[in-house]
Amino acid sequence: MTSPSTAPWRLVALASTIALALAACASSSPSPSGSSAASESAAPSAEVVEIEWYVGLGTGENEEQIPAEEAVVAAFNAANPNIHLTLTVVDNTEAADTLATRIAAGDSPDIIGPIGIRGLQSFGDQLLDIGPLIASSGVDLSEIDQSLIDVYNVNGKQIGIPMAVYSSFIYYNKSLFDEADLAYPPHEVGEQYEGQDWTWETVREVAMQLTVDASGNDATDAAFDPENIVQFGLDAQWTENDGRAWSTIFGGSGSVLAADGTTAQWPDNWRTGLKFMYDGIWVDHFIPNATAVQGLADGNTFQSGRVAMDVVHQWYTCCVYPGEGDPAVSDWDIAVLPVGPDGNITSKLHADTIGIMDSTEHPEAAFEALTFLAQSPELIQTWGAMPATESQRADFFAGLAERFAPLEIDWNVSTLMLGYPDNPSHEAFMPNFAEADSANKDLGSRLWNTPGLDFDAELDAHVELLQGIFDEAT
Amino acid sequence: MRLTGGSTDKGAAASSQRSRHASNASRREWRTGLLFIGPWIIGFVVFSALPMIASLVLSLTNFDPREPDEIKFICLANYARMLDDPILRESIWVTLRFALMVVPLTLAAALGVALLINSTLLAGRNLFRTLFYVPMQIPIVASTVVWIGVLHADNGWLNKALEAAGIPGPNWLQSPTWVGPALVIMGLWGIGNMMLIFLAGLQGVPTELYDAAKVDGAGRWASFRHVTLPMISPVLFYNLIIALIATFQYFTQAYVISNGRGDPDRATLFFNLQLYREAFGFFHMGYASALAWLLFVIVLGLTIVLFKTAGSWVYEGGDR
Questions:
Q1: DSSP code of A128?
Q2: What are the pLDDT digits (tens) for A191-205?
Q3: How far out from the chain centre does Cα A100 lie?
Q4: Count of beta carbons in the 10 Å neighbourhood of residue A409
Q5: Which ipTM score applies to this complex?
Q6: Which 8-state DSSP code applies to residue B226?
Q7: Taking the CB of the first residue and of the last residue of chain B, which one, N or C, has fewer CB atoms within 10 A?
Q8: Peptide bond into A424 cis (omega under 30)
Q9: Domain A37-166+350-400, CATH 3.40.190.10 — does that match?
Q10: CB–CB of A84/A75 below 8 Å?
Q11: In angstroms, what separates the C-alpha of B10 from chain A's closest C-alpha?
Q12: Beta-strand relationship, A386-387 and A161-166
């Protein structure tokens, strides 16, 4: 018989246990970090097709960007009563893992992006070939350069339409050139520099004159002290130690994958380019090593005002603030890239797109939404991107001119460099992509941190390692 | 007889009733116990036991969460791959090297601080005990971010202090040589828990043993060597096991300082970080599951070895 005094306690215990279990169940339900108001609009009717747009793999997940994305989603829903587009925003650090888990659970979203070329490679096999949809819908891509469209053609599959593009070029600190009494680098392709062809060799000579130690000696002086450098001639900041990126900047286009699609390689022009960088760090000292970079505005080296030339992409306008910080860059402009060891100018290209998952049950509706998103300048604007569509660029550059006034930046250089994209891309497909990509960054890290390496032996060992990684994929 | 018999019957009935009551009480106790322990059992089964079984099964497959339909049973191929994985070998070496540095140093530091705090000569012992324990309350990510600033090559306090003493400070976090010692220094900051356990052990050593040692002419070192150490050896053993397991599970600090990549030059690519990269960076979930089981076997093996050696140096109630 239950004692009257214990019964209430048992009830309390039972109720607590049930409450705990319910709470645990409730808290275990995942909720996207930024589920939008747009997704909570009125319930669609039975015939309405649900399409989910998944944001977070690239830019687009910042708080200030979400309202613009929600507005575009709302505009799409208002204009397309038969399709209900919802927005799911996931924090960038967990977006790839979350997407992979959702794919494994058979719960893929329909559309993903914006996402860069590298990010797309991780999910390239899961993306729909939108080539036939482009052809059947008659979407006008005439304003987008074909070379940019080709960037998203992976193994014969068109997996995206370029929305935003970011050419790379040289940002240069005019004050440091003035101080050294040196002419500014060229703004036009084919223009010479002080009677010399504008090549990486010329850049090396100029950069050494702009590299200065604590005693004021430049890197061409015999008395130059490489242990106490206060100003560097050249950098290529924020490349994530990527061996492929550095090789492309200084060596031109190339691929670690031979034409047979299975053999690992490091092309000769990439060896030359990467050696240029390695010697620039450890022999000629005009490029900062990993340690020195930490002392230059914590890696935002051009902003430190102590780097004369910096090869970075168009998106770097995000993070250069004239006059802010001490020291800081105060007067700068942009110049064209020089001719590389392969005899070509190569502007390493970054691009963002939106893709459709091949698991979508409604490819036509998803493509309808994708087309709408790709043609929404508000999105490009909120992502701070340069539009791939030519007619939208004037507004983009007008915004930049206003932002950096009174500096008069020659944005024509950026447009010029779009004509020299790396092809194949430095972020192109490799078998076992994520692991191979990581190995390339390990190589970059080693070169950036370690003097005195047997360069060729390192590269040979790396190619062997890559081959093993490629082989795992087959 | 009747009385007796009645008494016997009554006695049997009472006994039977008592037995039923006892049985009912026992069942009630059992049910109540189950009710209270139920959430834990459910949690253990759902969040530990089932994932462990799942990971064992996955370790025999090529599971990639991006391509769930293409999952294949590959027998022991993931385990065979470990033998031929140079990066795994590097990660094991990084972890072992770190363990060799950090385990003895943190044990010694925690014991040293505990001895100081246990000293009757120290004023404000409670304050010091709190101060040494406080770092344990700071989230690891937050403390690591602070340490990144402290260890900064140019602007960090540590190098500024070394510079003031005329010693050029190394590049703690970017140098493959120095990043290990940098992590050890960070580890020393988090000895609070270990220190508290040592302190409890020290306070449990009977004072008469010290008195007897003193009578026998033992100095401070001899007392420590022959009284304190043997008496706290069970606590030392416990801390050693816990430290070793924690070292093999070392992850967060390495992840934060290297952006999850093991930089510089894979010098911080600890076993757990490599496991994480394989699972969530490269989506090799099958191989990562096999690595998780390897980690389990390594830690279990080391623990068994330590338990086997414990008989020769751990004092349990006066017996070795």
A1: -
A2: 999 999 999 999 999
A3: 20
A4: 18
A5: 0.73
A6: I
A7: N
A8: yes
A9: yes
A10: no
A11: 20
A12: antiparallel
Q: Count of alpha carbons within 13 Å of B185, Cβ hemisphere only?
A: 14
| Res. A25: pLDDT tops 70 | no
**Contact of A244 with A274, CB cutoff 8 Å:** no
Chain A residues in contact with B66 by the CB 8 A cut-off are: 100, 103-104, 122-123, 125-126
What is the rounded CA–CA span in Å between residue B164 and residue B160?
A: 6
**Residue whose entry in the numeric block shows the structure tokens 């969040």:** B47
Cβ pair B159, B152 in contact under 8 A: yes
Cβ atoms A234, A310 nearer than 8 A: yes
Would you list the domain boundaries of chain A?
37-166+350-400, 168-348+430-472
pTM: 0.79
Least CB–CB distance from B264: residue in A20, A96, A290: A290
Query: What's residue B205's pLDDT?
Result: 93
- Number of helices (H), then strands (E), belonging to chain B: the values are 15, 0
Please give the residue that has the higher pLDDT: either A146 or B214. Answer: B214
Helices (H), A124-267: 131-137, 146-151, 174-179, 200-209, 243-251
Lowest mean pLDDT across A327-341, B3-17, B36-50, B63-77: B3-17
Distance from CA of B256 to the nearest CA of A (A): 12
Write out A363-420 in H/E/C secondary structure: HHHHHHHHHHHHCCHHHHHHCCCEECCHHHHHHHHHHHHHHHCCCCCCCHHHHHHCCC
Is residue A235 within 8 Å of residue A302, measured between CB atoms?
Answer: yes
CB atoms within 10 A of CB B227: 18
| Residue B234 CB partners (closer than 8 Å, separation 6+) | B201, B314, B315, B316
Helix (H) or strand (E) holding A103: helix A92-104
Phi, psi (degrees; rounded to nearest 5) at A352: -120, 145
d(CA B270, CA A463): 24
Mutate to test the interface with B, among A11, A291, A446, A450 (most CBs of B within 10 A): A291
A43: left (phi over 0), alpha (psi -120 to 50) or beta: beta
The CATH number corresponding to A168-348+430-472 among 3.40.50.720, 3.40.190.10, 1.10.150.390, 3.30.1030.10 equals 3.40.190.10
Give the phi and the psi of residue B156 in degrees, each rounded to 5. Answer: -70, 145
Which residue does chain B place closest to A19, by CA atoms? B39
Q: What are phi and psi of A369, to 5 degrees?
A: -65, -45
Q: What is the CATH number of domain B79-313?
A: 1.10.3720.10
Rounded CA separation B6/B13 (Å): 10
Contact A357, A111 (CB under 8 A): yes
